[in-house]
Amino acid sequence: MNAPAPGVAVTDAAKLDAARVLLDTLGISVTDLLNEPVDRPPVPTFDEYIPKVADAVGEGTRRNYGTYWKRIRAHWGDRRLDEPTPTEIELLTQEIRASALVRRNSRGGRSAAEHLIAALRCVYRRAEIDDLIPKGSNPALKVPKPRRLPSTRCAVANDRLAEINQVAATTGNDSELDALLLRLHTETACRRSGALALRPQDLDETQCLVYLREKGETARWQPVSPTLMRALVRHSEQRGAPKDGQLLRYVTGRPITRRRYDYLWTRIGKHLPWAAAQQVSIHWLRHTTLTWVERNFGYGIAHAFAGHTDEAGDGGSTTTYIRGQLHEVATALSTLTGEPHPLALAA
């Protein structure tokens, strides 16, 4: 407790301390009391506001947080946004973490806890923007996310990668599609979202480039080998992909979804027990390719190959000067595939 100011009675000091505690609890500062009150609309409930947030965010955010927004509404649907305290949020986080689905690659519900807090922060951030709650009063910011553990993913050895491609190309109900998927991800190190968003109009056949649109609304032209470009064009034509529609499709012409990846890796796991045991997924191919590029061509070119952006904290301002160029990425790809590329530097 603070010592009373000179000339202030002990009882008055106690009252001041009590007032400070009360203001702290209400999230109000002395400055707020001196300022003119702000006319804000009534604070909505979670049931009223979360659907509006879901409509406002991008598809990726909606997909990542949708499950957790449902859980929040199930617990606090009829409560106003300004009612839950950081302690209540932490208690809900622990409950969600304890009830998380246990898989072989589970890490004690850390991911579920992290996503719940992120989902709440997203809601409160929008509420601040809409002036529904005072700036700086986001209670979810006061609850720390669980510390992330190092990823268990690693680069796949060449012989193991050959086994994966062999299984994909010789088993299943559409081995041609699956072999194309694996080659696309191996050559471009693209994410699953990038492959699913690819359209016929995103192919530059002359320069052997594909236009990848991935998370965070990032986009880039990525070199591919002439062999892969021909395969993508042929796939698009044979399966009737419209120019501005999704390129990757089933034999019936229906666009593939994320479920194709689940089917592919479940099948690979049945034939390759080591892949099932390690929970190998399509992201391992990204890891494999980028590791190879970094070892052989350096950080700057691997950074560009991956499509990473030069945000603050990502290598610092030095990345401005070591950023890989498109022709350097093409050169790395040409070496990786053993095929000439129209944009690669001359040997």
UniProtKB/TrEMBL annotation:
The source's domain of life comes to Bacteria
Listed A to Z, the keywords are:
DNA recombination, DNA-binding
Instruction: Quote the Gene3D superfamilies the UniProt record gives.
Output: 1.10.150.130, Intergrase catalytic core
Q: Name one GO biological process term.
A: DNA integration
Per the database record, which ranges form the Tyr recombinase domain?
A: 159-310
Q: Does the keyword DNA-binding apply?
A: yes
SUPFAM superfamilies linked to this entry: DNA breaking-rejoining enzymes
Which Pfam family is one of those matched by this entry?
Answer: Phage_integrase
For the keyword DNA-binding, the answer is yes
Gene Ontology molecular-function annotations: DNA binding
The family line of this record is: Belongs to the 'phage' integrase family.
Q: What is this protein called?
A: Integrase
Organism, as annotated: Crossiella cryophila
